[in-house]
Amino acid sequence: MKIIEEFKAFAMRGNVFDLAVGVIVGAAFGKIVSALTSNVLMPVLGAVTGSVDFSKLAWHIESPVEKKQIAIGYGVFLDAVVQFILLAVCVFLLVKGMNLLVGKKEAAPAPSNEEKLLVEIRDLLKSRPPGTTP
After folding, report:
1. Confidence (pLDDT) at 50
2. Which helix H or strand E contains 71, and what residues bound it?
3. What is the pTM of this model?
4. What is the Cα–Cα distance from 43 to 49, expressed in whole angstroms?
5. Which of 48, 41, 50 is CA-nearest to residue 82?
6. Using a CB cutoff of 8 Å and minimum separation of 24, what contacts does 120-124 make?
7. Which of 33, 37, 36, 32 is nearest to 54 (CA)?
8. 14 pLDDT above the threshold of 70
9. Closest to 98 measured CA to CA, from 14, 22, 16
């Protein structure tokens, strides 16, 4: 029963829930980028380069053993690279936008030597029994 309680405490923490939401939204965003790349960008790029469909681009070589044609589909690879670059740019812009919204959090300056010494004196005075004189 202790394992179930530990798992429940783990699963109910806020950052685990946020991570789950992020994964779900990321998967949906990946589908959007995939659709944009496959249905909008790649046909335009294909029209500009003279090839209609990048996914059908392939090198054909003859197998020395079986005497058959082997197709190396580099068009699908190019499509995946364009999708990756587009997704990376979108994530970069998203993180950059979030950083602008949140703003920079300045780190507290390190205490000076005098402040450290005063803290030590305070702590020593607090640790003495009441009614004793220095």
Report:
1. 77
2. strand 69-72
3. 0.52
4. 10
5. 41
6. none
7. 37
8. no
9. 22
- In the chain, the percentage of residues whose pLDDT exceeds 70 is 93
The pair of three-digit structure tokens given for residue 126, joined into one six-digit string: 């607090």
Instruction: Say how many residues make up the chain.
Output: 134
Q: DSSP for 50-69?
A: T-S-GGG--EEEE-TTT--E
What CA–CA distance (Å, rounded) separates 83 from 113?
Answer: 54
Dig out the tokens for 64 from the structure: 């020395």
- Report the alpha-carbon distance of residue 133 to residue 119 in Å, rounded: 19
CA torsion through residues 118, 123, 124, 126, sign? positive
Q: Residue 133's pLDDT band (boundaries 50, 70, 90)?
A: low
The ranges assigned to domains in the chain are 2-127
Query: Can you tell me the distance from the alpha carbon of 124 to that of 24, in angstroms, rounded to the nearest whole number?
Result: 53
Q: What is the CATH number of domain 2-127?
A: 1.10.1200.120
